[in-house]
UniProtKB/TrEMBL annotation:
<dbReference type="GO" id="GO:0016020">
    <property type="term" value="C:membrane"/>
</dbReference>
<keyword id="KW-1133">Transmembrane helix</keyword>
<dbReference type="InterPro" id="IPR010291">
    <property type="entry name" value="Ion_channel_UNC-93"/>
</dbReference>
<dbReference type="InterPro" id="IPR051617">
    <property type="entry name" value="UNC-93-like_regulator"/>
</dbReference>
<keyword id="KW-0325">Glycoprotein</keyword>
<dbReference type="Pfam" id="PF05978">
    <property type="entry name" value="UNC-93"/>
</dbReference>
<comment type="similarity">
    <text>Belongs to the unc-93 family.</text>
</comment>
<keyword id="KW-0812">Transmembrane</keyword>
<dbReference type="InterPro" id="IPR036259">
    <property type="entry name" value="MFS_trans_sf"/>
</dbReference>
<keyword id="KW-0472">Membrane</keyword>
<protein>
    <recommendedName>
        <fullName>UNC93-like protein MFSD11</fullName>
    </recommendedName>
</protein>
Length: 435
């Protein structure tokens, strides 16, 4: 039944919401937390940006073998294994040690490749051409609700603190791990997608692992995927910026006041509001807007929202903000917490515009090769995110914003070029689908 597939999508979204309530919250505060750990344990020399860079580098490399793994074990088991690695990574913070932090970062990167490629493949299997936009929007809205709960926990537990003590850190870690485990249970409840109903769902044919790898290489070399990869690179850069760099930059800007660390959590909440609003809007209206106008107006809107956010961040936060506590000022004096939270909302809403349409494009246009298409998406996105976390340790805020502006404009253009080509082919595709 088609209804069964909708239940699967809701279970999938619920599982990811809980798992990423844990991980996205931890990623948002990781540099801030590690800065406090170093003050308590001078022998600890770990770095949050380096940990995140390792995660995304391992994720990008692992994406080339995940189609082969998924062809052997299927998307549901792959997602369960991936979820376990997230829980292990979070547990490692109870024992601050550089080798453990970076080792678990590598393991998480490999697990993230499994969970995300499995998610893309499974969502595609649970969707038809008529429901892919709706299901993508529902999943994205549920996923981004993760930005609320964990960051509200951070907002209240960090209240009035300029140093995050060990007791506070332990409470946050324990809650986040418990929530991640519940999300893991959700993923174990996923059922095989239904192939009956008004619109048949294509299940991937059994493919030899070696053939799955070669298929991914060939797909990556197609002109359409090369163009989309530029868009994917931009989503990776923006992801690393708002999930790791921007929140830390707010917390390190002393001129915001004694509540600067508290605003790190509130920043995540406002990003989540934008993400969920975008996901709900495109989930409810996705099929109608995609059929009538295509995906490009939504992506263009996302690009405009991000450009506005980057300009306001440039005016509001000092160039040295990503590196640590600073008394420096920018053009808005003193820096405005209200403007900072407004930018968080714009970053989240713009990100929802890009990602829901990327999911819709991959799940609809590349439906015959979902594992390969989503692995390429996560590969390019992760390479960009890893590179961003590397240069974030050396480049000031203004240089980072310039990179985002340039890639944002180019990525929006390349997505629209592909979408225009898809629009021209749509009548032919619809006739073939009816047959």
């Amino acid at each position: 039944m088609v209804e069964r597939n909708l239940v699967n999508v809701l279970l999938l979204g619920g599982g990811f919401m809980l798992i990423f309530t844990s991980f996205q919250t931890l990623g948002n505060i990781e540099q801030t937390i590690i800065d406090s750990i170093k003050k308590d344990l001078p022998s600890f020399t770990g770095d949050g940006y380096t940990s995140l860079a390792i995660i995304y580098a391992a994720l990008s490399l692992s994406n080339w073998v995940t189609p082969s793994v998924l062809s052997a074990i299927g998307p549901r088991l792959a997602m369960v294994i991936g979820a376990i690695t997230y829980c292990l990574f979070m547990a490692s913070f109870f024992v601050p040690h550089v080798a453990l932090l970076y080792g678990c970062s590598v393991v998480l990167g490999a697990g993230a490749a499994l969970i995300w490629t499995g998610q893309g493949m499974y969502l595609s299997q649970c969707s038809s051409g008529d429901t892919i936009s709706r299901n993508s929007g529902i999943f994205w809205a549920m996923l981004q609700m993760s930005m609320f709960f964990g960051n509200l926990l951070v907002f209240f537990t960090f209240q009035g603190k300029t140093h995050i003590d060990e007791t506070t850190r332990s409470i946050v870690f324990a809650v986040l791990i418990a929530v991640g485990i519940v999300g893991l249970v959700f993923l174990t409840c996923l059922r095989r997608p239904s192939t009956t109903g008004d619109a048949p769902v294509e299940l991937s044919h059994s493919v030899e692992p070696r053939q799955a790898f070669l298929n991914a290489i060939r797909l990556f070399q197609t002109p359409r995927m090369i163009l989309l990869s530029i868009t994917f690179v931009y989503t990776g850069l923006s992801l690393s910026f708002f999930s790791g760099v921007y929140g830390s930059s707010i917390g390190f800007t002393n001129a915001i006041g004694t509540s600067a660390k508290q605003y790190v959590g509130l920043n995540g909440v406002f990003i989540g509001v934008g993400e969920v609003l975008g996901g709900v809007a495109f989930g409810l209206l996705g099929t109608r807007t995609t059929t009538r106008w295509g995906r490009d107006p939504i992506v263009i809107a996302g690009g405009v929202l991000h450009m506005a956010a980057y300009f306001l961040i440039y005016l509001n936060l000092p160039n040295a903000a990503p590196f640590g506590n600073t008394d420096a000022l920018s053009y808005i004096q003193p820096p405005s917490a209200l403007v900072a939270m407004g930018c968080s909302f714009l970053l989240g809403l713009g990100d929802a515009c890009f990602n829901t349409q990327c999911y819709s494009m991959l799940g609809g246009v590349f439906k015959s090769q979902p594992a390969e298409a989503f692995s390429i998406f996560k590969f390019t996105q992760s390479v960009a995110a890893a590179a961003s976390f590397v240069y974030s340790s050396y480049c000031g805020l203004h240089v980072q914003l310039l990179i985002l502006v340039v890639l944002g404009i180019v990525g929006t253009i390349t997505f629209c070029v592909v979408e225009f080509a898809v629009k021209r082919e749509r009548p032919t595709l619809e006739r073939d689908y009816e047959k």
